[in-house]
Amino acid sequence: MRPTAKSLILDLLATLREGSMPVRALVAAGALFGLDDNNVRVALARLLAAGLVERDERGRYRAGERAGAIGRRIGRWRHVEDGLRPWDGGWIVVLGVSGRAAARRSSRALRFFAFRELAPGVHVRPDNLAGGAAAVREQLRALGLGPDAVVATLDDLDDATRARALALWDGRALRAAYRRSRNQLATSAKRLGRLPAAAAMVESFVLGGRVIRELVLDPLLPEPLVPAAERAALVAAMRDYDPRGRACWAAFMREFDVLPERRAPAHLRIAEEAVA
């Protein structure tokens, strides 16, 4: 799926290690994806107003402070396994999300951690994340979870409720998605060098961003719900693809005097959704 003007801008700015990007670079990148000059400039103005991008003294742009918490989480796609701990069968539960606006923002935060609704107003996930409920609570708050919501542990589900909880995620579909994405990365890696430069830029941006988004939103389910090796294999494949994608964009970045981050575009359209 091709990016919107907003998500393209956010993704490109997410690649900056330092410095900023001129409007003409964003416009040139937009043209690669069939986005016209006005479309890009209007999107940039809206992102600036929303605090998702910032303008420096030279009129160049960088990712804004409001995208910070989400950007940091997205940037950890390489090391998702580091944030896990053995699962003892317990759950993290979120209760008390109320109010339409708060519920909308909270649901986006919950989506980052793959919470599922077990009963009306009761969202759960396996308690296998490093730091437990306290760490998840802090990160959910940073991502927009309402201040009145309760985040706690749940350790005593009856057998029927536990079975319903385990069925909230489709492990077979996840394994199939991991394998499909690995195959797509392998196929693309073989042909990037044979593609025209613009086509290689577009393909690496779209595919790399999609896979990173898949990893960022992965539920990080424990064994035996999903074999950890399947997820680790996809992370390894994306790490291999990452420098190939960056190489496709290197000449473009040099042309516009932009310093790229040492990672692929991070699909910050998730950030756009999370703070909308």
SSE blueprint:
Elements: H1 5-14, H2 23-32, H3 37-50, E1 53-55, E2 61-63, H4 68-74, E3 91-95, H5 100-112, E4 116-119, E5 122-126, H6 132-142, E6 150-154, H7 159-166, H8 171-191, H9 197-216, H10 228-255, H11 269-275
Antiparallel strand pairs: 1-2, 3-5, 3-6, 4-5
Could you characterize the architecture of this molecule?
- The chain starts with a helix and ends with a helix.
- A hairpin with a 5-residue loop joins strand 1 and strand 2.
- The protein is globular and about 60 Å long.
- Helix 8 (171-191) packs antiparallel against helix 9 and helix 9 (197-216) packs antiparallel against helix 10 (228-255).
- Among the domains are: 90-154, Alpha-Beta Plaits (2-Layer Sandwich); 170-255, no CATH class.
- The protein has helices at residues 5-14, 23-32, 37-50, 68-74, 100-112, 132-142, 159-166, 171-191, 197-216, 228-255, 269-275; strands spanning 53-55, 61-63, 91-95, 116-119, 122-126, 150-154.
- The protein is of the alpha+beta class and 276 residues long.
- The longest helix has 28 residues, at 228-255.
- The chain has eleven helices and six strands.
